[in-house]
Amino acid sequence: MAAYILRRLLLIIPTLFGIMVVNFVLTQFVPGGPIEQVLAQLEGSGDVFEGIAGGAGDAAAGATDTDAYTGSRGLPPEFIAELEREFGFDKPPLQRFIDMMWNYIRFDFGESYFRSISVIDLVIEKLPVSITLGLWSTVIAYIVSIPLGIRKAVSDGSQFDTWTSALIIVAYAIPGFLFAILLLVLFAGGSYFQIFPLRGLTSDNFENLSLLGKAGDYIWHITLPVLASTISAFATLTLLTKNSFLDEIKKQYVVTARAKGLKESKVLYGHVFRNAMLIIIAGFPSVFIGVFFAGSLIIETIFSLDGLGRLGFEAAVARDYPVIFGTLFFFGLISLVVGIVSDLMYVFVDPRIDFETREG
User: Fold this and answer.
1) How far apart are CA 312 and CA 126, in angstroms?
2) Distance (Å, rounded) from C-alpha 139 to C-alpha 143?
3) What dotted CATH number matches 120-359?
4) pLDDT 10s per residue in the chain (360 long)?
5) Cα–Cα distances in Å, from 109 out to 63, 119, 205, 325, 330?
6) Second label for 254, Cα 20 to 30 Å away, from 13, 109, 133, 283?
7) Which residues pair with 188 in a beta bridge?
8) pTM listed for this prediction
9) Nearest CA to 142 among 282, 303, 246?
10) In this protein, which residues make up the domain named ABC transmembrane type-1 (predicted)?
11) Where along the chain do its domains lie?
């Protein structure tokens, strides 16, 4: 097993490198880079040099004799050259990529072009929203879907199985953003009830609340966005659980266990459960990471939540390359490591699995 883990760890290097190369090359062909973004903002502002800190502002300060708007006359070439130097665009693409990867290997992700904050601090600032949506959505989906899937498998073909299948398929078909709007209209003062808050993770007086009050306020705020982000997750997990149980129930060892007179609950949860839950339990790390880092832009926007979804979208629109590539490298690395953890979970749940033997 150690040799398998070592091979998978070594495979991370070329895989992550390939991801970064492909995305870096693609950005070279995307029009409207960060320099163009800044110039477009400056040419439409009251002061052409306002908001630019550091040497670029100093280099441009001597290029105008007045504080009047100079956008109509164009920006000084010296200013543009200094701006390119600060952003690193005075170097050829290959050199920029090598410098970027060298910094990322040392976990130096740099600073956002437009927010004057390091990429790591920016991600940490957005994490509470992603932790909330990712963690609770995954936990609730597992808590509901696994018992429901088991019940559906036991009563396969019954009326309960039929109408629950219809419900979860309808829920799967409803877009998350549409369900979020429906929840707002019904329960957040849209047209009917004012039960839940309209936006944010906490209230304005959150810091002044007691520990119990903070917990209640937090749950009060996350109820609607978590429901909206979880609604479509039930179908896949429930049907996967059901089908896994059905496959195991039909096997010979289950028939033998029943023939020995074991109670049905002992057969299901003492024998079938372990084998049927292998693929579901072992896949938990990758499912959680997928939900955690995916970040639902639309749901975050609807509920005014500033998470990783909105961060990624805003960085892409603004061509904030340090944020784009820094988060891509970091989350890509985590995803690859979690893939190894998922394999280890398979072995933990069922020690009979041996990846080294299968590879051989």
Assistant:
1) 11
2) 6
3) 1.10.3720.10
4) 677 788 888 888 999 999 999 988 888 877 777 777 777 766 665 333 344 434 444 443 444 443 444 443 456 777 777 777 777 777 888 888 998 899 899 888 888 888 888 899 988 888 888 888 888 888 888 888 888 988 898 888 889 989 999 988 888 888 878 888 888 888 887 667 788 887 778 888 888 888 888 888 888 888 888 888 888 778 888 888 888 888 888 888 888 888 888 787 788 777 787 777 777 776 666 666 666 555 577 888 888 888 888 888 888 888 888 888 988 888 888 888 877 877 777 777 666 666 665 554
5) 33, 6, 34, 8, 9
6) 283
7) 194
8) 0.69
9) 282
10) 127-346
11) 34-89, 120-359
What is the C-alpha to C-alpha distance for residues 28 and 72, in angstroms, rounded to an integer? 29
Contact in structure between 277 and 349 (CB atoms under 8 Å):
yes
